[in-house]
DNA sequence: CTACATTTTGCAATCGGTTGCAAGCCACTG
DNA sequence: CAGTGGCTTGCAACCGATTGCAAAATGTAG
């Protein structure tokens, strides 16, 4: 079937060790044998079996990438960045699509079976305990977009969702909105609750405000749209913080159905700044989350952990900022 | 570090073979030993090392998933479906993000190093030769969304892009468009050229038509928008077949900039029927491509190939149909 | 209880590599 | 030329599993 170490060794007239050594960084081989081996390897089209070598080295370079946000377009960017960042470092993404699963047990077992060197939980909805389960099973883990904590149990890279909630509230206030609402993601998503907390904390400083809140069933267009349609049946607020860009886009679609102009009749501010939010026909004012930096940093952290699996847990929090586009009225 | 076969064998007081056999389907073990082993395994939290076993069985259950469409939202669905379909069958997706690479050599080498059982090339832009390279390297391969051929060299699952071009042309004609244009994806994409061919073939039957065509730089919103903006500078057609939904959405955005109403001033028909096309604020008339069926079928085919790697190559072509929404004028 | 068929079991080789160790090689020094 | 030290090299054990084979255990029939 496939060509192995032994075949190359035979052709080159050297021992198997010699072949192995020419293919491992920093091993001691003379220029002469290296040359012979490389020639033989090329001739046979040999490339070393990564899995076999993992048996002795204990390294597979496989990284589990676990996610559940397959209906949010921002995930396409996340996914693109992650796979590229990993590849660039010679690491291989092994994907787990959680769909609606929220228990880590299956993913943990599976990724252990494949001896992944580390796991990345890329989700803003799963609780810290999810990532913790990997840690407890001895799999180094980074929780990207996870809940930030002052004393994290596992590595977390992302944003301060509570602060983002405050930021959104302040932005609405600064633009003169007085009847304001939070339209969040699902109640069981940590990010939805954290953003809610920050938002409420800020608006409660102003007792004169009329404040409302509600939670969509998912981080999806349909859920955002459905929730906004429901709100429009009653007496809606005039400025909303939608807990995520895709919810915002759904909400914008609902406004349009009712003949309402975003930014004029009702204001919307989102969170994420996904590519689509820049599209001229969406033009969403939103809080920018530095996705690329977050992901690069996550992968950096993964690499660090490969060197030192006992690394002391750390939270890397990146600042966000408001991107002004067309869905909030201008500052006075 | 991690608990192995040997540990379980020791605790259960049986040989390593016995342990191995209790974990492999259809091996001969008595109920008694099986029970002892399972108890010991549970106690130690043992789960077999898939990579070690792959050494002897020659099966990894790893499937390479190769793609380059990370800027087209439809890929999110593709990706969701693929990862789920594979997981359901106990297979594990190992991702390769090609970005701009068009040479198969690197991916082939990498996937061979990881001994994937098969590869899926999920791309409508890469040529058949790309997938062929995997086949030639001894890696069973399915080219999903690939160019359909009457005598394929490797397994292809997808649609007949030429026929889709014809279908789009007929639809525009049936609705009374007489100045019609093709706004395709990049010229080096097989799907862009195939759709173009079918489209032209059909319109050339009607010499009275005024026909134009152009190709966007990529399958992306920006490229579609830019190309349509360019067309609007001159004298645009009044009905367009955009070679892909994301191009259509870009084009729609351009129309809006010029104060033109899609479906009234200028007609647009897309291809794919991605989720977003159903959104009320997009409402794109398009040709539906049965993505879910295509992907399920692709994974079925992968499973077949695992049983019989020498399986005779086959093209599985799925019919498409026009989904009427709001961006073409009604049939007379 | 014996003879024979059928399971069940453990031994040992194997999969494709890596690596500690000791021996071999070489050049250089005195 | 013997002695020293630094590189190279091959041997053989090992990583964590699977599996053919033969021995052992069990079951069945006479």
Automatic annotation (TrEMBL), chains A, B:
CDD domains: HTH_LacI, PBP1_LacI-like
One Gene Ontology MF term: DNA-binding transcription factor activity
Coiled coil location: none
HTH lacI-type domain mapped to chain residues: 3-57
InterPro entries: HTH_LacI, LacI/GalR-like_sensor, Lambda_DNA-bd_dom_sf, Peripla_BP_I
Pfam families in the record: LacI, Peripla_BP_3
Protein name: Purine nucleotide synthesis repressor
């Amino acid at each position: 079937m496939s060509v192995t170490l032994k075949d190359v060794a035979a052709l080159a007239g050297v021992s198997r060790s010699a072949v192995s050594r020419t293919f491992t960084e920093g091993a001691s081989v003379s220029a002469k044998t290296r040359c012979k081996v490389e020639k033989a390897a090329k001739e046979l089209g040999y490339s070393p079996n990564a899995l076999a070598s993992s048996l002795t080295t204990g390294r597979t370079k496989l990284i589990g990438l676990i996610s559940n946000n397959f209906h949010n377009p921002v995930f396409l960017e996340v996914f693109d960045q992650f796979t590229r960042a990993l590849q660039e470092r010679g690491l291989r993404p092994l994907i787990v699509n959680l769909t609606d699963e929220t228990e880590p047990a299956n993913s943990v077992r599976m990724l252990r079976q494949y001896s992944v060197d580390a796991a990345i939980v890329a989700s803003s909805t799963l609780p810290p305990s999810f990532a913790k389960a990997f840690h407890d099973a001895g799999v180094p883990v980074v929780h990207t977009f996870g809940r930030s904590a002052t004393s994290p149990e596992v590595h977390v890279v992302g944003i301060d969702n509570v602060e983002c909630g405050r930021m959104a509230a302040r932005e609405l206030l600064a633009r003169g909105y007085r009847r304001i609402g939070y339209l969040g993601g699902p109640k069981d998503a940590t990010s939805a609750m954290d953003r809610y907390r920050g938002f409420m904390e800020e608006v409660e400083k102003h007792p004169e405000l009329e404040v409302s809140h509600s939670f969509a069933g998912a981080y999806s267009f349909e859920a955002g749209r459905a929730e906004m349609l429901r709100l429009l049946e009653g007496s809606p607020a005039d400025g909303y913080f939608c807990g995520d860009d895709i919810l915002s886009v759904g909400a914008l679609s609902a406004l349009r159905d009712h003949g309402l102009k975003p930014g004029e009749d009702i204001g919307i501010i989102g969170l994420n700044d996904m590519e689509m939010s820049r599209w001229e026909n969406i033009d969403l004012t939103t809080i920018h989350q530095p996705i690329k930096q977050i992901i690069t940093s996550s992968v950096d952290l993964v690499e660090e952990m490969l060197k030192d699996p006992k690394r002391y847990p750390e939270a890397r929090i990146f600042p966000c900022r408001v991107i002004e586009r067309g869905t909030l009225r201008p500052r006075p």
